[in-house]
Every structure is written in structure tokens, then in C-alpha cells.
């Protein structure tokens, strides 16, 4: 009985706060639409649409009904959905917006990561993270990614007749992340990271109820464990630097620990290092694995695309022996392969969209967006706009032969403007190295009953996209 009273009071308190938040401005200036039931709003219908892979339709119906801007309630917060190039530019450049994410994301990824910071803090932390993720640094780690890919194939593909692609690609990308971010070898520690991290990913977009048996509750407990593990690694790396047993660019953590500000003090706090390491882990773990899986699925069903990628990769393989690694120069020759990847991300972006929050009252399209409200942008809303991309449903990698011809803030697979994803180059290298070895070592065909996907919030395949594989006689 006491528990029932507690939850009743909690709900009444939450509703009161919600009503206070939305009542402070006259409704006739707010965007059209309904906020729905306080706290819950349209969260469940949106999550259901994500799971059923109909979120694009969910958004299109709102645009048809209300126009390019409308209001809903998502994950406990009044939210404005904005559509179109002008809306995207506003989202990525306006100084009235901050990167504060929904409650579930903040609780799991922390409050000092790039997705949360604005102004000088964002500039400072982004500069530190980019010092490791910029091309001139990453080019030194192509060989390390190459080694991880060969280990992966030997462990999980060699001698097999059937594999499930998505789980294996998640294992691959996580191993690469552990290698480059932590310089962490295979073993129990990596396995513990992976087990906890899967709960974090599952809870990123969830109704903000931290009670037992919810996705958010499981994610918070897993996030606490991961943060403790990252802090232990930071202590180890800091000691190694003091003993001159580690070099500044050995991995992401040593890089962030080694960067000093103007006063010769550490540029980033320990909390900032922890939160941004976890953010990079999240981004690299899911997005690249999904992209590689989509490419494997496409090559199994589109012989033209497969032939184009195979020809490009075999040309590179001809100049190598079995022990040679992919080089930075090799990656620059994989132009068609990367155009295919970009076109996949245009049609089915791994990241459906993201949130911003207003720092103060803002105006867009003649409507008021009150302080503290969320703004949701979704990549597919411009990716599938026929005025920007003619015949948007048609798969055509030629669209990206001249990327400068694509209008600004219209292709959003990696965000846009000053907020463009700092991991772009990391994802490109990881994807191209993986595809090179897959197409030059194996042939495959789909063998699952259901090869479609849903979103939770990242794309998932019911059976993991099973394929029947056959190893080629000549390998590289």
C-alpha cells in the first residue's frame, strides 16, 4: 500500500512540474500539435514506430497534418519536431539551443560529454577529442584496425558455414574501440565492458522511469559499472605516463590525459574524460557495426553494387601479400565503396535523429519554442526530400561523386555545421577496412527468414542477419 501511495504522489508531482513548465507561455504562439498525456505524451507511439521501423511514416504523418514544425511530448519533455533544410540549419547553428539530451541519455552517458556541452566548454572538449580523432593521427592506427580485423575473421569466420552478421560486427567494432581507446587486449576486461555496454545502449531512449526491471534502470546500473572501469583505466594510464611508460597518442585516454591548457594544468577533468570516452564508445560501437551490416545485406541483394565494390577492393588486394596491411593510401582508393556507404546512410541512417534543448525562448517559422523544451531533428526528413535528392527511394551512389553539390544541412548522417560528428574519419576507416577483407576473403548469401530491421533505437535485425558464407580459395 505504501508503495502505491509513493508512486501516486510521484506521478502527481511529475505532472505538476510538467504543467508548470508548459503553462508559462500563451498556447496560440506555440507550434501546432498536441502534447498529449503529461510526461508520457507520444513517447510510446514513437518508440513503437521505431521498433516497427515505421518512424519515418510517423514523422511524415505529422508533417502532412501540421506542417514543417509541430509539438509533442517525448520522454517526459515537451518537444518540437522540425523538418527541412532551414530547420536543420537552425538546429546546428543557433546559439539559443544546447545539446542537452533526454533524461535517459544524460543518466547513461553523463553530463560532461560533447552531446551535452555548449559554448566554450564544447569547443574545449571537442578540440581535445579531435586531437586524437583527426585524420593525421588516425592514419597511424590503420594498421591496428587491420590487425583487429584479421584477428576477428580468424576467431569468428574461419571454418564457419553460417554466421550472424550484426552481432559479429558489434564484436568487431567493440574490439577496435577497446584497442584504440584503451589499448586494451582481448580478455575478461573487454568481455565485462561489452556485457555492460549492451544494457547502456538498450536504455538510451527509454521512458525516464528509474524503477526495477526497466531499461533505464538496467542501463544506469551498467553505466555505473562502466564508469568505474574507465576510472580504473585512467588511473593506470596516468601512472604509466608519469613513469614514461606510455606515449601521448598511444590511445584516446592517454591522449586526453596528456593535453594541457595554458596554465599547464590538465585541459579536461576526469569526469569529462570518462563521459567522452563512453560517448565515443557508444557512437563507434553501434553506428559502424550497423553500417557494415547494411553493406553486407546490400551486396547480397544488389549484384551491381557488389561487383563495383569487389572490383575496387580486388585491385587493392593485387598489390599485397597475405601479411601486408591496408594502408592510408589504400583507403584513399576506396572511393566507390565509401560512396555506397554514404548512400546507405542517406536512405537508412544508423542514427535516426537527435535532440537539442532551448537555453531560452526561441522562435522558428513564426512560432515560439519555450525555454527548456526539446527539439527533435530526424535525418530522413531531408534525406528523402525529392527536391534535394531526386528519386530519393532509388539507390544511387553517384549522388556522392561530388559532395559539394549537396546543399548544406541536407545530408545529416554525421550531423552538420560545428556539431558534425568528430568520429567521421574513424567510422570511415573502420568500415572500409572491414569491407575490404570481407569481400576479398568471402562470398555470401542471405539465409534468414526475416532480413528486415527495427530500431531500439539503433537498427537491429531479428535474427542478426544470418548469412551462409564460403571462403575464397585465394585470400589476402
What does this structure look like?
It is a single chain. With 476 residues, this protein is α+β, with helices and mostly antiparallel strands. The chain has one domain (2-471): Cytochrome P450 (Cytochrome p450, Orthogonal Bundle). The chain has 18 helices and twelve strands. Strands 1-2-8-5-3 form a five-stranded mixed beta sheet. It has a three-stranded antiparallel beta sheet with strand order 4-12-9. A two-stranded antiparallel ribbon has the order 6-7. β1 (69-74) and β2 (77-82) form a beta hairpin. α8 packs antiparallel against α9 (165-182) and α13 (270-301) packs across α16. It starts with a helix and ends in a 5-residue tail after the last strand. 43% of the residues are buried. InterPro entries: Cyt_P450, Cyt_P450_CS, Cyt_P450_E_grp-I, Cyt_P450_sf. This is Cytochrome P450. Pfam families: p450 (PF00067).
Structural class: alpha+beta
Radius of gyration: 23 Å
Give the CA-CA distance, first to last residue.
67 Å
Task: Tell me the helix content.
Answer: 40-55%
**Shape field:** globular
Characterize the biggest β-sheet. Answer: 5 strands, mixed
